[in-house]
Specification:
With 325 residues, the chain is an all-beta fold. The protein has 3 domains: 81 residues, no CATH class; 104 residues, Immunoglobulin-like; 99 residues, Immunoglobulins (Immunoglobulin-like). 0% of the residues lie in helices and 45% in strands. Strands 3, 4, 6, 9 and 10 form a 5-stranded antiparallel β-sheet that branches. Strand 7 and strand 8 form a beta hairpin. It is elongated and about 110 Å long. The two termini are 31 Å apart. The structure holds calcium ion (2 copies). The site of one calcium ion (CA) has 6 residues, from loops.
């Protein structure tokens, strides 16, 4: 949830004109202006919690692939009871892949077989606590198609796998007015088919838009590689740090995520413009009027557009100060 916050609101009733009256020359009237500055507040939103599955889950991701050799990581997450006395992970390659070296535990892959067993081999790696992830890595070679294995067993139990979820980083961004910022999107697990991820502003300041990466495609092989979405904030005349929500939605039944974008305003605070800043007042007569108005577009028209100071015949000097509060 966002924390409620508010900006100071300029109140014409709060404009005070105070005058100090003296009885000596010079016959100049000086008018000073004090502007009010509006300062916005940024809100930080914590990232969403990760999903969970029963038993175990495995995320198999290729680290590199040059067409005949490749490397991969096998992230084993124990979502069941704690494993304290050793473990084995089994899977079958879909093709003719062969592991050449694997670390930091042991592996076997019989000659001519697609079946792989990865196993703990020392006291330091024989335990996987509930919720913990252990990630062996390996290099191998292949010919033809290098498709990922899709089914895994941990200690003889088929892993439930992981339903892909959107991983959005960060989920709260500050966008410079007139500039841009990016957030990254990836999937937590391999989808069974291509997934299209769409980012669109769903509410808030229309100056904030998705300017690049609004539509991204994730495949069963590149799902773990972050792709960037660019958020831009157009220049505007106000001094407000506008906010907008960007909905990140995905095909394939994957739950949506939300990015909160806050505009970082770049306009100076409003000021009173006094013109002229000095004038000559004929003794025993009235002063010339001074016009002044703010730069802020939301000021009420005419509320402080004109100010006339009339000097009584007995008064020769006036010092006037305008205050906004
Ligand atoms: Ca602005
Ligand atoms: Ca704006």
């Amino acid at each position: 949830m966002r924390t409620p916050w508010s900006l100071p609101v300029w109140n014409p009733q709060a404009l005070r004109i105070t005058s100090l009256i003296r009885r000596k020359p010079p016959r100049k009237v000086a008018i000073g202006a004090i502007g009010a500055l509006v300062v916005g507040a940024a809100v930080v939103i914590p990232a969403a919690a990760a999903f969970a599955a029963a038993g175990c889950s495995v995320q198999y991701s290729k680290a590199w692939d040059n067409g005949s050799g490749f490397g991969a990581n096998v992230a084993i997450t124990n979502t069941g009871d704690a494993i304290t006395n050793g473990w084995t992970l089994e899977f079958d390659f879909p093709g003719n892949q062969r592991i050449t070296d694997l670390w930091p535990v042991a592996f076997t892959q019989p000659a001519g077989s697609a079946h792989v067993t990865i196993a703990s081999n020392a006291d330091w790696n024989k335990a996987i606590a509930t919720g913990a992830t252990f990630t062996p890595g390996f290099n191998g070679n292949y010919s033809g198609v290098n498709a990922n294995p899709t089914s895994f067993k941990l200690n003889g139990t088929v892993c439930g796998g992981s339903a892909p979820a959107l991983v959005v980083t960060p989920t709260s961004v500050s966008v410079p007015e007139g500039g841009m910022v990016t957030y990254a999107v990836r999937l937590s697990a391999a989808p069974t088919a291509n997934v299209t991820v769409t980012s669109t502003r769903s509410s808030g300041d229309t100056d904030i838009t998705v300017s690049a990466g609004g539509t991204l495609t994730f495949t069963p092989t590149n799902f773990a590689t972050p792709q960037n979405v660019t958020v831009s904030a157009a220049e505007d005349a106000d001094t407000t740090n506008g906010t907008a929500n960007i909905t990140v939605s995905a095909t394939g039944g994957i739950p949506s995520a939300t990015v909160a974008a806050t505009e970082a305003d770049n306009d100076p605070g409003q000021a009173i413009v006094v013109s002229p800043t000095s004038l000559s007042v004929p003794e025993g007569s009235s002063a010339t009027s001074h016009s002044f108005g703010g730069t802020r577009s939301s000021w009420p028209a005419g509320s402080v557009s004109r100010f006339t100071q009339v000097l009584p015949p007995s008064v020769e000097t006036i010092s006037t100060q305008l205050c906004l509060s």
